[in-house]
TrEMBL record:
The chain crosses the membrane at residues 276-298. Residues 295-347 form the HAMP domain. SMART domains: HAMP (SM00304), HWE_HK (SM00911). It is a multi-pass membrane protein. This is histidine kinase. The keyword Iron-sulfur does not apply. Gene3D superfamilies: 6.10.340.10, Histidine kinase-like ATPase, C-terminal domain, PAS domain. Pfam families: dCache_1, HAMP, HWE_HK. It is found in: Cell membrane. Residues 335-362 form a coiled coil. It catalyses: ATP + protein L-histidine = ADP + protein N-phospho-L-histidine. The lineage of its organism: Bacteria, Pseudomonadati, Pseudomonadota, Alphaproteobacteria, Hyphomicrobiales.
Length: 564
């Protein structure tokens, strides 16, 4: 049935998918041609604007060369005239006249001492060609700013008398290109004959002054304009229209790149909408097929689901009653057998839990009777001969009995750390003020961490009495704790006892220490068996502080964890 439903849906959707695929291919091809045409046109427009700027400055230098003060190299009058020209033309920084030896004669600003320009490429090119020339990206020696230098010879007959030099402000050129506006993802690049970028939109601060990548440098001096597809330095796939350098009219390389993701965004959106429409149609087809097969598929599934919901609500006797020969009938019958097994296991677990609780109560009763018997024997043996020692023994025995009673009952209440530690130690050392030192703030622990801490301290004290410092007359134990950001750090330090060595295997006590705390306490512990005595560190979380005296019984199903 499932295969039949899938086959029907596929047969209905196949023509629609084929039509969508055809339209997608045709639209993308058409859009690609449109973008290529737009990229070539944008590059042509940007190149034309650059040509107009260069041509305008060429005309300016021609006009300057015709000024009498410049032609006669009258320094003072020439300085004033060129200063006036530079102040009225916003796209240049300076304009000056240099002799054929490269030393400045007059200009729109004062010259640094000893500055010469004979080593500049544009200067030598002008002397060689006796014609107007455009240089490359240059750091000006007069303004210390990047410029695109321009030079034109000042002729006297057929002889070069001097060279008139100026430079396009690259910040002005950048602003001019930026004002034209570039769509998101697109880019415009202007570079000189050496491949150095003199203007770039967007992110000029990242690209201006850098060199065009080696793989695209061949485009700068290509034979003719063209359109190609590239991946830009910013990682964007673009359709690039470019205009190579073509002297003398076009001295700069210009390219305009159109972002493919942006250019194809409308088509991508249309594709997404068509895809969603197909998915919607597929869902409708499947729903119709399911509706037709409701009697054979959905009804049995709903019956099984109803039984599962009844089980979740506590009706453990609910069954599907399905026995049909089809696949779903077999699933329902198997499900019924599974529920029968689960019900039987639940009953067995309940009986086992009741038996365990009875055994725990019996164990608690027998432990109490054992302590009572020991106390009675001790009282009959030496209460009259040594009352003081008997009293101390009886107190410690009672404290030990109280600790075991707490362990077996698995009940506790919120208590301060100091009281928990003192109660756990009372059974091991009668005079704690001399043998044991406690140091820490008043931190109140909830019941779920108070009992595990009591167990750990009791186990540490038991080990210290059997093997460590509390088994020696001069042995001491220092217990310090700190509370920070909902976590308690406790440090147990032994001293004055017999030499300590690392145990070769873990006993039950070590396992108890590691697993005493519930998982939400995120407890971690570390034992350092130093020769002078054990140093044990315990860190656990207590969450929100619990008010002193507030009782919170431990859950019967606490899960234990350890991190050592």
């Amino acid at each position: 049935m499932r295969l039949k439903l899938v086959a029907v849906a596929i047969a209905a959707l196949a023509p629609v998918v084929a039509m969508l695929f055809y339209n997608e291919v045709a639209l993308r091809h058409q859009r690609n041609e449109e973008v290529r045409t737009s990229a070539a046109q944008a590059a042509r427009q940007a190149s034309s604007e650059v040509e107009r700027i260069i041509e305008g400055l060429h005309a300016l230098l021609v006009s300057v060369s015709a000024m009498p003060s410049v032609r006669h190299l009258d320094v003072q009058v020439c300085n004033d005239a060129l200063k006036s020209v530079a102040e009225s033309i916003p796209n240049i920084r300076t304009i000056f006249v240099a002799g054929i030896d490269g030393r400045p004669i007059c200009g729109s600003m004062a010259f640094p001492e000893g500055v010469v320009f004979s080593d500049r490429d544009y200067f030598r090119q002008t002397l060689e060609t006796k014609d107007f020339s455009v240089g490359t990206y240059t750091q000006s020696r007069l303004s210390d700013r990047p410029v695109l230098p321009l030079a034109m010879p000042l002729m006297e007959g057929d002889t070069i008398k001097a060279v008139i030099i100026s430079g396009i402000r690259l910040d002005w050129l950048q602003n001019r290109i930026t004002e034209r506006g570039v769509a998101p993802g697109n880019a415009v690049t202007i570079a000189d004959g050496k491949g150095t970028i003199v203007a770039h939109v967007p992110s000029p601060e990242q690209f201006v002054g850098t060199v065009v990548p080696e793989e695209y440098r061949r485009l700068i001096h290509a034979e003719q304009p063209d359109v190609i597809e590239i991946t830009g330095q910013d990682g964007t796939a673009r359709i690039l229209g470019y205009r190579p350098i073509a002297l003398p009219s076009n001295p700069l390389y210009v390219s305009a790149g159109f972002s493919k993701p942006e250019a194809f965004a409308p088509i991508d959106r249309a594709t997404l909408m068509n895809t969603l429409a197909i998915i919607g149609g597929a869902l409708f087809a499947f729903l119709a097929a399911i509706f037709i097969g409701n009697r054979f598929i959905l009804a049995p599934i709903s019956r099984i689901a109803d039984v599962m919901e009844k089980w979740r609500s506590g009706q453990t006797t609910a069954r599907t009653g399905m026995k049909g020969p089809d696949e779903l009938g077999l699933v329902g019958a198997t499900f019924d057998r599974l529920l029968d097994e689960l019900e039987e296991r639940r009953r067995q677990n309940q009986e086992a839990e009741e038996e365990r609780s009875l055994l725990v109560r019996e164990l608690a009763h027998r432990v109490k009777n054992g302590f009572t018997l020991v106390q009675a024997i001790a009282r009959q043996t030496f209460s009259r001969s040594d009352p003081e020692r008997y009293s101390s023994f009886a107190e410690r025995l009672a404290a030990l009995a109280g600790t075991y009673d707490l362990i077996l009952s698995r009940e506790g209440s919120a208590s301060p750390v100091r009281e928990i530690v003192s109660a756990a130690l009372r059974a091991h050392v009668s005079s704690q003020t001399e043998r044991i030192r406690l140091d820490g703030p008043d931190v109140v622990l909830p019941a779920e961490t108070a009992l595990p801490l009591s167990l750990v301290i009791h186990e540490l004290a038991t080990n210290a009495t059997k093997y460590g410092s509390l088994g020696s007359d001069n042995g001491t134990v220092t217990i310090e704790w700190r509370h920070d950001d909902g976590r308690v750090r406790l440090l147990w330090t032994e001293a004055g006892g017999p030499p300590v060595s690392t145990p070769t295997k873990k006993g039950f006590g070590s396992v108890l220490i590691e697993r005493a705390f519930p998982s939400k306490a995120q407890a971690r512990s570390h034992a350092d068996y130093r020769a002078e005595g054990l140093v044990f560190q315990l860190i656990f979380s207590i969450g929100e502080p619990v008010a002193e005296g507030e009782v919170d019984p431990l859950s019967r199903d606490v899960k234990h964890t350890s991190q050592t």
